[in-house]
Amino acid sequence: MQRFFLLLIVIGLAFVTQVQTSTNQSSHSKTSDAHLLEIGQAARLRSTPTPSGEIKVVSYNIRWRGGSELLKLAQALKEDPEVGGASILGLQEVDRNRKRTGNTNTAKLLAEELGMHYAWAAPPNPKPGKEEETGVLLLSPYPLSDVQRIVLPHEGPGRRRRAGIGATVKIGSSSLRVYSVHSETRISTDKKLDQMKAVLKDLARYPKDVPAIVMGDLNTWEPGVGDKTSKLFTGEGFHTPFDGDATFSQRVFLVPIKLRLDWIWLRNIEATKAGIDKKISLSDHWPLWVALKIKPVRV
């Protein structure tokens, strides 16, 4: 029975991925990858009161929302009791210049709606001359510095690539290194772990006492990959307040499938509260949030 459900998952994810891949093209060649990193800020930034030592962080795969759904998302990120008012946001599947989302610069629009700094990055497209790939995004009312676009190793279907983005966030006297990551769905477990290690390699440029957050859709849906992910991150001094709860829900041939795909990993930071906001149904993922106490460490 377990193998039957796993087969359904594989078929379903393959179908969804194929639909998305068919429109997932890029307007930039490998020689113009600089265009696949965008850094900016809202015309009017949200006020940033002196932090009391606790901040909120949200991670969410928004599944390329656009139009009215994107505005609903912005409203939730401002006012929702669980995910609203975060100091750091890490989003995945964020479009820019895609027909399916009205050729909207989603990162810039969200930054304007929320009054935040932003940094967006996308992987190169295997078929230059078409639409851009979807990207990953960091948002904060606090400045972002030392922004790094990370093209994750190993190709997926159709030579598709995935990306992560890292930045340093300065909050009061504290500096945090934060990452938003979107791993490939259909590659082997070892290759998936290599993609996580690419992010940790960037983090290794900083002292080990620097507070760090790695969040995003790591696509840990296969049996055993969650445990291997935990072993990798805990071995690097990380911990997570989330313990096996589903973060993704979709029906595959009318069968409800719930999986743990999304994570927030913390290093040198204490989590005081955390949750998965399952009342927000704009995507096939749910947003994760965590309230943190941070140590005053400078990068």
Which descriptors would you attach to this protein?
299 residues, alpha+beta, disordered N terminus, globular, Deoxyribonuclease I, Chain A
Could you explain how this protein is built, in words?
Helix 2 (67-79) packs parallel to helix 3 (106-114) and helix 4 runs parallel beside helix 5. The strands form three sheets. This protein has a seven-stranded mixed sheet with strand order 1-4-5-3-2-14-13, covered by helices on one side. Strands 6-7-8-9-12 form a five-stranded mixed sheet, covered by helices on one side. Helices cover 23% and strands 31% of the residues. It contains five helices and 14 strands. Strand 7 (163-171) and strand 8 form a beta hairpin. It has a single domain, classed as 4-Layer Sandwich (Deoxyribonuclease I, Chain A). With 299 residues, it is of the alpha+beta class. The termini are far apart. It has helices at residues 2-23, 67-79, 106-114, 189-203, 225-235, and strands at 37-41, 54-61, 88-94, 117-121, 135-140, 144-151, 163-171, 174-182, 212-217, 248-252, 255-259, 262-267, 269-276, 288-294.
